[in-house]
Design goal:
single chain, 357 residues, alpha/beta, TIM Barrel, two-stranded antiparallel ribbon
C-alpha cells in the first residue's frame, strides 16, 4: 500500500463559501490542487448524520452532511486522491468528551440502535458508490477513547460498545469487502491506555483492520512514546497503524484577537521551534517514525484541517451548533496557526517536506 500523505479537509467547502483564497508562491490557486501538487494522496472527510437544528439552521464547523462530503470526495478524486470516510455517528463533533447520538436515534437502544448503525453505514456507502466515490478506508467512530453513541456504547459498557462497532464494521464489509476499517483513539503516546482499550477488543475478536491514533505533540506525549506505542500495538494486536490526526503550529502570533488552540504558553511543551521550520521538522520526524514502524505497519498520516486559515466567521461552530452541544465556549477560529497555509493563505514550506519525503 502506498504510504499515505493525507489531509483532513472537512471544513474546506465552508471556507471557500466564506471567501477563503489560497496561494502558492504568490499565485492564487485552488487549495485542493495545491495540496495534490505537493504530494498529498488522500483526504480524510468527516460525516455528520444531520448537522442542522429543527429550523434547518446549520451547525457549522464545515456542516459536514452527506452532500458536502460527496462534494469534497469528488474534488479529491479529481486530483487523483483517495479518501478515508470518518463516520462520527453523531450530528456534530464527536471526540473523547462528546459522543452524542444523532437526534433521529435518541430513542433507540440495544438491537434497534445496532440496526440503525448498520443501515446508516451501509446506505451511506451505497450512496458514495452511486457517485463512483468508494472510500478506501472507513473509521467506525471518531476518537472513541470513551466509546461511541453514549450511553449505549460508552466504554463502561464494553459489550454494548463492541456490538455497535461490529454493526458498523459488518455494514462496511457487506457493502465492499475491500474497504479497510479503522478504530480510532486519541492520546497516541499512551501505550497503557491503548492496551487497556484494545485488550478486551482483541478478546472479543472484533474484526477491524487498522488502529488509528491521534497524535498532537503538545497534548499526546513525546514522539518516542508514540513510536513505542505504535510498535507495541501493531505487534500485540497484529494490526496496521495510522496517524488519523496530527498537526503542528507555524506561529504563536494570534490572528486579530482570535483565541488559538496553541499559544506561546505551550511552546516549551514541544522540542521544535514554533515557526514554519519547526512545523517542517515535526512532520518530517513523524513521517520517519511511521516509516520505521516494525513490519512496515505504519501506513501514513492525515494532517488535520490544513486549509482552516484565518478568516472571519470560519468558526468551529455556528450558534445552532453551540446550542446543540450546550457549550459555553465562544465561537472562534481556533485552528488558524496550525494550518498548512499562513494567515494570508500562502502555502507553507511544510508542503515541500511532504512532497520530498
Amino acid at each position: 500500500m502506498t504510504f499515505i500523505k493525507g489531509v483532513d479537509i472537512s471544513v474546506h467547502h465552508e471556507m471557500e463559501q466564506l471567501g477563503a483564497t489560497y496561494y502558492d508562491d504568490g499565485s492564487p490557486r485552488d487549495a485542493v490542487q495545491i495540496l495534490g501538487d505537493y504530494g498529498i494522496n488522500s483526504v480524510r472527510l468527516r460525516l455528520w448524520h444531520h448537522p442542522y437544528d429543527d429550523d434547518g439552521q446549520p451547525y457549522g464547523g464545515g456542516t459536514n452532511d452527506l452532500a458536502t462530503t460527496i462534494l469534497l470526495a469528488r474534488r479529491a478524486a479529481q486530483q487523483g486522491m483517495g479518501f478515508l470516510l470518518d463516520l462520527h455517528y453523531s450530528d456534530f463533533w464527536a471526540d473523547p468528551s462528546t459522543q452524542v447520538k444523532p437526534k433521529a436515534w435518541q430513542d433507540l437502544s440495544g438491537e434497534a440502535l445496532e440496526q440503525a448503525v448498520y443501515r446508516y453505514t451501509w446506505n451511506t456507502l451505497q450512496e458514495f458508490r452511486r457517485h463512483d466515490l468508494t472510500p478506501e478506508l472507513v473509521q467506525i467512530g471518531n476518537e472513541i477513547t470513551g466509546g461511541l453513541l453514549w450511553p449505549d456504547g460508552k466504554l463502561d459498557n464494553i459489550p454494548g460498545m463492541i456490538r455497535l462497532l461490529a454493526a458498523g464494521i459488518r455494514a462496511v464489509k457487506d457493502s465492499d469487502p475491500s474497504i479497510r476499517t479503522i478504530i480510532h483513539l486519541d492520546w497516541g503516546g499512551d501505550n497503557a491506555l491503548y492496551r487497556r482499550w484494545f485488550d478486551p477488543i482483541a478478546e472479543a475478536k472484533l474484526e477491524y483492520d487498522i488502529i488509528g491514533l491521534s497524535y498532537y505533540p503538545f497534548w499526546h506525549g513525546t514522539l518516542e512514546q508514540l513510536t513505542t506505542n505504535m510498535n507495541d500495538i501493531a505487534s500485540r494486536y497484529d494490526k496496521d497503524v495510522l496517524i488519523a490526526e496530527t498537526a503542528f503550529p507555524f506561529t504563536t502570533e494570534p490572528y486579530d484577537s482570535e483565541m488559538m488552540i496553541f499559544t506561546e504558553a505551550q511552546a516549551d511543551t514541544v522540542p521544535y521551534s514554533i515557526d514554519p521550520q519547526g512545523q517542517q521538522a515535526f512532520l518530517g520526524d513523524l513521517m520517519t517514525a511511521l516509516e520505521a514502524v516494525e513490519g512496515q505497519r505504519g501506513l501514513g498520516f492525515y494532517y488535520w484541517e490544513p486549509t482552516w486559515i484565518s478568516l472571519s466567521q470560519a468558526h468551529w461552530g455556528k450558534e445552532a451548533g453551540i446550542r446543540y452541544l450546550h457549550k459555553n465556549d465562544s465561537a472562534a477560529n481556533v485552528w488558524a496557526n496550525l494550518a498548512m497555509f499562513d494567515y494570508r493563505g500562502q502555502a507553507l514550506p511544510v508542503l515541500k517536506t511532504i512532497r520530498d519525503f
